[in-house]
Design brief:
This is Annexin. With about 675 residues, the protein is an all-alpha fold. The protein has 39 helices and no strands. It is about 70% helix and about 0% strand.
Length: about 675
């Protein structure tokens, strides 16, 4: 299926287009609007025919005339569009290695992402355009392992086998592991050979097996074992193996985020991908960054340059949260794949080996006895024991010293560290019950905390929370929610707090009916039926009581039925706490570790830190899926959770959080 945003222009006449461009540049000034409209709506092959016709009709070089008439970023964009793609890449690389210094990011982007055929065309174009050998020029301008990998990629000899040998996959996993993690120093040659030559399908299986074998993604090993431009190149290769469109979506986002715009990167990608996979890039961009590529370009650029980029983008999928039809089918296929994927959830805190509650109780007593407090010992013991072991320590502490460990800790430590340590010492259900109580007491209600807990806990966890709430506060959780919230939001929370979510698999027929209910209540169904109150109740029932596997199927059917993503439609059509609750449920169903990764990121971004959310998530997920959350965090935000915590907290609170985090990715 064609995934570009620029197509062959129907009823194409190169002579007519050449005349139109000549007229647009004739006389004083130029008609930039006509130039951009014409060039961005022709395919690259058609543009080459226009160049030929222009020379035949007027005896002039079209690119030279465009350079003369246009200026700045708009000129660079239009001129790049007029070159054959291989020559465009050749020009980018020539510029990257000319003069003082080297644009390593440009070299990495092009050589890590091109196919064998594109690489061969690039080498030939470079030779034709500059009468120089590309490999020799790259060797002359780079060095070390970075140079070696670039040369390997430049050969364009990556295997294309669709049939993968399981034995070779296992062998490559072992070779990579022994070349990095198990070796004093690193055998870079093995990384270069395997990542530079094996087929994409083969390497995807290698990456999956590597994670199962070593417990960490290949990216984490590359970050730990390699450095500098070589590390960046190898990470780019891995990203392109996993998903080339996702790699370019990330590059585009970084080119426009923050102050200033990296226009060279923006132009290069928009030109080179407009006839390859721009629709996929757009889809991934909006899903990953919750805004459309179109809207970000629109807000970050101006003038004819902006208009031309938006034409190459091909459409805005943001305002209505709408999937354009081709991307809807891609999204549907992605859902199909995710439905069969089974991700093992892993915490970062587990039961300590050779656990001795007696020794731990004595060590904690010693740490708090006398003048001053040994916070380091408290942190070390409590963050490296499972919750079940901490409860044994509490009991042993009371048996030995006749004292309440929680009370002693409360008197010895304070602030954020105290909230974290005391939270870790509570049984999970009692900790969640306390967080819900605090969210509802005093002036105002912390709706976000209520949503986070009730929308993400399993039936067993919800039932345990209800019992703990009753035991600790002598009031039912339902009564507390009823008195502190109102309207549809209260109904949603009470429904979630019953812990009656179905636990079976999917029912396809029921999923189609549920998707239809969602389409009707969100007002995008072709034939709405039923009164609104009834539909609202049915929609709440679907999201609050259907099983996770079934809801994933509902979301797939919703996309298939409407060409919309349910999460984006909820964000557009609903508002307030009801919207936030439904979005949290949908995100949790789609990918719960990613939901919590987002919560952690938002708790630390910008001025100030939301220590309450940060503490709550780190405590509640440390034995469930914090390892998975770490992986989602670095994948989405391009920095590790460890780095984010390190940059946003300090002192003993920082040390305790990093201990829970469990490692640097």
């Amino acid at each position: 299926m064609y995934r570009g945003s620029v197509h062959d222009f129907p009823d194409f006449d190169p002579n007519q287009d050449a005349e139109a461009l000549y007229t647009a540049m004739k006389g004083f000034g130029s008609d930039k609007e006509s130039i951009l409209e014409l060039i961005t709506s022709r395919s690259n092959k058609q543009r080459q025919e226009i160049c030929q016709s222009y020379k035949s009709l007027y005896g002039k070089d079209l690119i030279a005339d465009l350079k003369y008439e246009l200026t700045g970023k708009f000129e660079r964009l239009i001129v790049n569009l007029m070159r054959p793609l291989a020559y465009c890449d050749a020009k980018e690389i020539k510029d990257a290695i000319s003069g003082i210094g080297t644009d390593e990011k440009c070299l990495i982007e092009i050589l890590a992402s091109r196919t064998n055929e594109q690489m061969h065309q690039l080498v030939a174009a470079y030779k034709d355009a500059y009468e120089r050998d590309l490999e020799s020029d790259i060797i002359g301008d780079t060095s070390g392992h970075f140079q070696k990998m670039l040369v390997v990629l430049l050969q364009g000899t990556r295997e294309n086998d669709d049939v993968v040998s399981e034995d070779l996959v296992q062998q490559d996993v072992q070779d990579l592991y022994e070349a990095g993690e198990l070796k004093w120093g690193t055998d870079e040659a093995q990384f270069i050979y395997i990542l530079g030559n094996r087929s994409k399908q083969h390497l995807r299986l290698v990456f999956d097996e590597y994670l199962k074998t070593t417990g960490k993604p290949i990216e984490a090993s590359i970050r730990g074992e390699l450095s500098g431009d070589f590390e960046k190149l190898m990470l780019a290769v891995v990203k392109c193996i996993r998903s080339t469109p996702e790699y370019f979506a990330e590059r585009l986002f970084k080119a426009m985020k923050g102050l200033g715009t990296r226009d060279n990167t923006l132009i290069r990608i928009m030109v080179s991908r407009s006839e390859l996979d721009m629709l996929d890039i757009r889809e991934i961009f909006r899903t990953k960054y919750e805004k459309s590529l179109y809207s970000m370009i629109k807000n970050d650029t101006s003038g004819e340059y902006k208009k031309a980029l938006l034409k190459l983008c091909g459409g805005d999928d943001d305002a209505a949260g709408q999937f354009f039809p081709e991307a809807a089918q891609v999204a549907y296929q992605m859902w199909e794949l995710s439905a069969v994927a089974r991700v093992e959830l892993r915490g970062t805190v587990c039961a300590a080996n050779d656990f001795n509650p007696d020794a731990d109780a004595k060590a904690l007593r010693k740490a708090m006895k006398g003048i001053g407090t040994d916070e380091a010992t408290i942190i070390d013991i409590i963050t490296h024991r499972s919750n079940a072991q901490r409860q044994q320590i509490r009991q042993t502490f009371k048996s030995h010293f006749g004292r309440d460990l929680m009370a002693d800790l409360k008197s010895e430590i304070s602030g954020d560290l105290a909230r974290l340590i005391l939270g870790l010492m509570m049984p999970p259900a009692h900790y969640d019950a306390k967080q819900l109580k605090k969210a509802m007491e005093g002036a105002g209600t912390d709706e976000k905390a209520l949503i986070e807990i009730l929308a993400t806990r399993t039936n067993a966890e919800i039932q345990a929370i209800n019992e703990a709430y009753k035991e600790d506060y002598h009031k039912s959780l339902e009564d507390a929610l009823s008195s502190d919230t109102s309207g549809h939001f209260r109904r949603i929370l009470i429904s979630l707090a019953t812990g009656n979510r179905e636990e079976g698999g999917e029912n396809r027929d029921q999923a189609r009916e549920d998707a239809q209910v969602a389409a009707e209540i969100l007002e995008i169904a072709d034939t709405p039926s039923g009164d609104k109150t009834s539909l609202e109740t049915r929609f709440m029932t679907v999201l609050c009581t259907r099983s996770y596997p079934h809801l994933r199927r509902v979301f797939q059917e919703f996309i298939k039925m409407t060409n919309y993503d349910i999460e984006h439609v909820i964000k557009k059509e609903m508002s307030g706490d009801v919207k936030d609750a439904f979005v949290a449920i949908v995100q949790s169903v789609k990918n719960k570790p990613l939901f919590f990764a987002d919560k952690l990121y938002k708790s630390m971004k910008g001025a100030g830190t939301d220590e309450k959310t940060l503490t709550r998530v780190m405590i509640s997920r440390s034995e469930i899926d914090l390892f998975n959350i770490r992986r989602e965090f670095i994948e989405k935000y391009d920095k590790s959770l460890h780095q984010a915590i390190e940059g946003d907290t300090s002192g003993d609170f920082l040390k305790a959080l990093l201990a829970l985090c469990g490692g640097e990715d």
